[in-house]
Every structure is written in structure tokens, then in C-alpha cells.
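Sample pair:
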Amino acid sequence: MHRTRWAAGSLAAALLLAVPAVLLGVTGAQGQVVAEPTIHFAFTGMVPGEQRSDSAPVEVAVEATLTDVRVTELENTADAFVWAVSLCPSGTGGCIPVTESGEGRRVPSGTYALTVDIRLGEGAPAGARSEIEGRIRLVERVADDDDGGGLPPTGFAARGLLVAAVALTVLGLVLLLATRRRGENP
């Protein structure tokens, strides 16, 4: 009977340790925020088929990683706009798409233009309007690796809780098996 109580206690303790471990999680450390430009562009009075572009300068002091992209179209009169937001280096080099798929991309230090390109579809009414807002975050790149930079995973307290929970679970299961083999009634 004592083994059953110990097994139950062990399993309960494992559960109590596992829940905070899962909630805390193990995350990668990030460097300091290098730049966090906001995006706000409005395009008015457009005619079908028209394309426009606008940009704002962004200074990146040190090599960074593009993180946390949020771009929202606030107003879209004709529901027929096609737009793209990019971070383009001055001079030569390819633009980095400012989309969730662009998150994790390396951004070398330098001067950039945060560019919005927009086109109104052919079937839309003349005088259409679209307004875009959002922000991006550029975080100092602290490691030179292919998965977007960052320090190794941290959260050792959470990892320790998870290891302890697994160990207590195993102990509880072993005690339950031993109890059942001896014929004790749980």
C-alpha cells in the first residue's frame, strides 16, 4: 500500500513540475533591438492599373536579424490593391521581404529604405484609397548561424523542471508496476 501512495505522490509531483515547465518554455535569447521602424503609408486617388511606391529611411547600426513583422492594411476602398513591403539596401543588394516569411533573415549593417509598392487592380474604381501600417523589429545578430541568429536556447529552470517531472513520472510508474507485481491492491 505504501508503494501505491508513493507512486501516486510521485506522479502528482511530476504533473506539478511539468505544467510550469511547459508554460515557461525554452526560448532562444536575443540581442538588443537595433531598430524598430513603424510603417504608415497611405495611397489615395489611384486609378485602375496604377502603380505607386513610397519609402522611409532605416539605419541599421550593426548586423541584425529581422523579427516580429506586423503589417496591416487599414483601409482598402476597392479591395483590389496588391502591395508589397520590402527593406532595401542603398546601393546594391537584394531587398528583404517584410513579411512573416522574411522573419529570421540576416540584415547587414547599413542604410536601408523601407519601401512599399502598391498597385490597383484593373477592375477597381478610380479614386481608390489604401492605407498600410505596422512595424518591424531588427534585433542585433549575436551568433553567426543559418537559422536566423540568436544565442543557444535558455530557460534552464524550465528544462530542469521538465527533467525532474520525467524522473518522477518514471519513478511513479516503476512503483506502480512493482505494486501490481506483488499483488497489492491500489
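Helices lie at 2-24, 156-182.
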